[in-house]
Amino acid sequence: MEENHPVSEDIMSNRTVLISGAGIGGPTLAYWLARHGFAVTVVEHAETPRSSGNPVDVRGRAVHVAERMGALPRLHEAATGATGLTFVNATGKRVGRMDMRAMQQPGEVELPRGDLASILYDTSRGHAEYLFDDSIATLDQDEHGVEVTFVNAAPRRFDLVIGADGLHSMTRRLAFGPEGGLVRHMGLYVATTPLGGQPKPGRDVLMHNTPGKAVAVHPAPSGDLAFFLYRSPAEPGFDHRDTAQHKRLLTSAFADVSWRAPELLAHVRTTDDLYFDSVSQVRLPRWSTGRVALLGDAASCVSLFGDGSTLAMIGAFTLAEELAASPDDPQAAFRRYESSHRLLVDPKQRAIEQASAVIVPATRLGILARNTATRLWPAVAAATQLKRMFSRPRDVADQVR
């Protein structure tokens, strides 16, 4: 499906950029590049903007990016309204709690990932050409541009190509090589699925843990979401697009878990909307090669716990600013973008072990210690401790000017 928008002659005389991926980083980058006079095309393999995925946060500088895009009011309208994270035992009795509101700064918001992607797409679609139900097949770059062939559309030439196509990036594979050695499985798998029903905002996330496993029900504006997270070595032959395989893995992993797990697994078996993937990190020695660069999870997936959506939005803004500053020297712009953005990404990638210990303790003793800590600490102290795990460096500017 192709969406064309008229582009002025002035814009056509400037740089042309192809962005692969219409998730979080792609539409944000499309908006800001277009504002700087670039002609932007976004290609997305899905037929529509992605609707599934776990709730995500828009924090810190990403709030100011959204605000300058005029998208912040819609983000708050789509907020999950979750007030806290309550840990429950097998019978549903509360055994610990953390106040999520104490962890948020003014303007920060949690919302379903699909809603965030849809809002960013709506905000950028008038500024860029979108090609849905298509993807890049080959890249052939030279000193002056990149020849691109698509699975469906006719071949085209672009001045630059940006891969914002996620953990399993095809752009990264074509420009940097296979995933092995670049993508590291972090010993966890995650799944989410919408449960539907009447929305009931202003409630806690309810989570039940057994050693190495967590199952939760998360409130959302369109109805509750089921969330699963479990520890496991890398599954041989894992395919991130094989839903039948995902259902088998999830059902097997949680077969011995009580609380609401049997009910939620019954829903998993029949749903057509299941997100399931490895919790992984992407570590590259560099984020660009020639006229191809990577953004968001494609460049530096920071795992489930690392503010990936926030970082994708900030990275998109930074990349657009740097390209605008030196449009005739994109390699220099890529280097400045990477140097700046790694200051935010690297601490997040180092924090996964601390974060996973809180959400999915590996042992019964770990679960007990976590629950006891949340009961003994004042709510704000507990939230501050968690926030410290994910905090960004103090020497990075707090606002997008």
From TrEMBL:
InterPro entries: FAD-bd, FAD/NAD-bd_sf, FAD_aromatic-hydroxylase. GO terms for molecular function: FAD binding. Gene3D superfamilies: D-Amino Acid Oxidase, subunit A, domain 2, FAD/NAD(P)-binding domain. Residues 16-326 form the FAD-binding domain. PANTHER family: MONOOXYGENASE (PTHR46865:SF2), OXIDOREDUCTASE-RELATED (PTHR46865). This is Oxidoreductase. It comes from Acrocarpospora macrocephala. The lineage of its organism: Bacteria, Bacillati, Actinomycetota, Actinomycetes, Streptosporangiales.
